[in-house]
Write a structure and sequence with these properties.
Layout: E1 6-11, H1 19-35, E2 40-45, H2 47-50, H3 57-73, E3 81-85, H4 91-100, H5 105-109, H6 112-120, H7 127-141, E4 145-149, H8 155-172, E5 180-182, H9 217-225, H10 243-256, H11 260-267, H12 272-297, H13 301-329
Parallel strand pairs: 1-2, 1-4, 2-3, 4-5
Length: 336
């Protein structure tokens, strides 16, 4: 019987998940579980990664549970899943150091995200900001991932992971699986409700710019009804000249899982107010059950059990992989 293949992905517990993240990423990720039903998914809350920049202790712990509960509430299935908290598996930190010994400073300095984030650092640049792509490599290589779902911003980091794996394999023989990128189907690109030429973002200081998955119905109504459009009454999809309206049409189409032209034809003889009202009700219908399931999960024994079971399976594999690499390198006493 062939060995079950693994898919590995981490999610940083920062900010609040919004409808843009849900439509553009979460739903596609959940579809991967259906497409790769014979694979096992190791999904972790990447709390080690979240401390490369300052974050309050209470916020970090709250967001860790919130994120896991929201992904599960959105439809992440438990059948082929190990969901765990990264920092609870010490092997991630140990493998991180081992892999740093096979990674070059020049490689890390070329990382685009390091360049971007280091420019924004206000109190000096923590060394973890430079080395966190190695921790990402450890996250992946610990579980012999066959595939890693990646977006455009993570392709460079995955290529570094592949380089490190090949470098160690060349020195010690075949040891690490060299993971392949798994490019999820492109989800809807949902833009800001207040500035529709910018992507909807959890880091936007203007809360009116987004609809979060935990927003109550009255807030969802206010956000959509006040969303920026334009003064021309014609309903058509024209991102260049009518970005606000086009964003609402794209959101509606993504919720309905139809082409945007279907929504345009449905509303071409109606006004903006009707479109916004109907979109609001469709959004509420989508979000309400997620929000309800989230509240059942977030402080429940069920979530604790899922973390415990996922962590147990992950820890077994990760500790075994670290021990084998240390043996190959020659660390510690030789095991008989």
């Amino acid at each position: 019987m062939p060995k079950q293949k693994h898919i590995v992905s981490g999610i940083q517990p920062t900010g609040s998940l919004n409808i843009g993240t849900y439509l553009g990423g979460i739903r596609n990720f959940i579809r991967l579980q259906e497409t790769y039903a014979d694979h096992h998914f190791f999904i972790f809350i990447a709390d080690f990664h979240s401390i490369t920049l300052p974050i309050e202790k209470k916020v970090l712990r709250k967001k860790t549970k919130e994120l896991a509960a929201l992904y599960l509430a959105s439809g992440l299935k438990q059948e082929n899943l190990s969901l765990f908290i990264q920092s609870e598996i010490a092997a991630h930190a140990e493998m991180n150091y081992l892999l740093q010994c096979f990674t070059y400073v020049g490689e890390l300095e070329r990382m685009t995200q390091y360049k971007d984030k280091s420019q924004k650092a206000s109190e000096g640049i923590p060394s973890s900001l430079l080395t966190y792509p190695v921790l990402q490599a450890a996250d992946i290589l610990l579980y012999d991932a066959a595939y890693v779902p990646v977006g455009e911003d993570q392709k460079q980091h995955l290529e570094l992971t592949r380089d490190i794996a090949r470098r160690i394999n060349n020195r010690y023989g075949e040891f690490f699986a060299v993971p392949e990128p798994l490019i999820p189907e492109v989800g809807a690109r949902i833009m800001s409700l207040t500035d529709p030429v910018k992507k909807m973002s959890k880091s936007d200081q203007n809360e009116k710019s987004r609809v979060n998955l935990l927003d109550p119905d009255n807030i969802i109504r206010k956000r959509i009804m006040s969303a920026v459009t334009d003064s021309e009454p014609t309903i058509r999809f024209d991102p260049l000249n009518k970005p606000g309206l086009s964003n609402l049409l794209a959101m509606f189409a993504a919720l309905e899982e139809v082409g945007v032209e279907t929504i345009v034809s449905r509303y071409e003889d109606k006004d903006y107010k009707t479109l916004k009202e109907d979109l609001t009700e469709r959004l509420i219908a989508e979000i309400a059950p997620i929000r309800e399931r989230y509240h059942e999960l977030v402080d429940s024994e069920e979530l604790e059990r899922i973390f415990d079971e996922g962590g147990k399976r992950a820890r077994t594999l990760a500790e075994r992989k670290v021990a084998k690499l240390k043996e190959k390198i020659g660390l510690g006493r030789k095991r008989k």
